[in-house]
Amino acid sequence: MMKLLLHTCCAPCLLSPFERLQDNKLALFYYNPNIHPFEEFNQRLAWVEQFAEEAKTDLITYHYNPDQYLNKVAFDTTERCEKCYELRLKETARVAQMKGFDTFTSTLLVSPYQKHELIIEMGTAASKKFDIPFYYEDFRPYYKDAQKTAKELGIYRQKYCGCKFSLEEREAELKARKTKVKE
Ligand code: SF4
To answer: Is CB count within 10 Å lower at the N or C end of the chain?
Structure first.
C-alpha cells in the first residue's frame, strides 16, 4: 500500500484513477490555477469536494490564483500545455514530498484529449526535482466508461480543457459549426 497524492483536475477524470488506486492511502489534490473563469474553477472544485466527502478521502485545495498560470504562459501561449502540466505536477510533487507521501500522480493521465507523453515527461521532471517517485499508469482505457458513469450520476462534465485559451478555442469551434450549418 502506497501513500499517494493524487492531483485531481475534475470529478469525471477522478472516477477511474480513484477506483484503480483505492487500495492505497489516497489524498486528493485540487491545484488547477489554469482554470478560467473563477465560476468554472469553483464548479469543478465543488464536485471534487462532494466526491471526497462521499468517499471519505482527504482533499487538499487552493484558493483561486490564475496568475500562477498566466504568468507562465502570457507571453507565449504556444507551449502552454507543457507549462500548465509542469506547474501543476511540480506543486503536487512538492506538497507530496513535504507531507510525507510515498508517491504522486495525476488524473490528467486518464484523458485521451490530454498530451499524455508530455504529462509523463513533466511528472518525471517534477519527481526528480522534489526527489519523490512519480506513479505512472495509463488510465486512458477507462476514460469512456468513466464518462458514461459521470453522465449517469449527473456529475458536471466540462466542455473545454480549462484555460481561457481552450475556452476561446471551444467557442470559436462552436461558432464555426453554427456558420457551417447556416450555409
Ligand atoms: S489546454 Fe488544457 S492543458 Fe493546455 S494549457 Fe490549457 S488548461 Fe492547460
So the answer is: C
Q: Is 34 in the pocket of ligand 1 (CB under 6 A)?
A: yes
Spell out the domains of the chain, with CATH numbers in brackets.
3-158 (3.40.50.620)
Cell 469551434, located at residue:
173
141 C-alpha to ligand 1 centroid (Å) = 21
Which atom of ligand 1 sits closest to the CA of residue 73?
5
97's CB contacts (< 8 A; 6+ apart) are: 130, 131, 132
Cα–Cα distance for residue pair 118/111, rounded to 1 Å: 13
123-172 confidence digits (pLDDT tens): 999 999 999 999 999 999 999 999 999 999 999 999 999 999 999 999 99
Q: Is the pTM of this model over 0.90?
A: yes
Burial 95-107 (b: 16+ CB within 10 A, else e): bbbeeebebbbbb
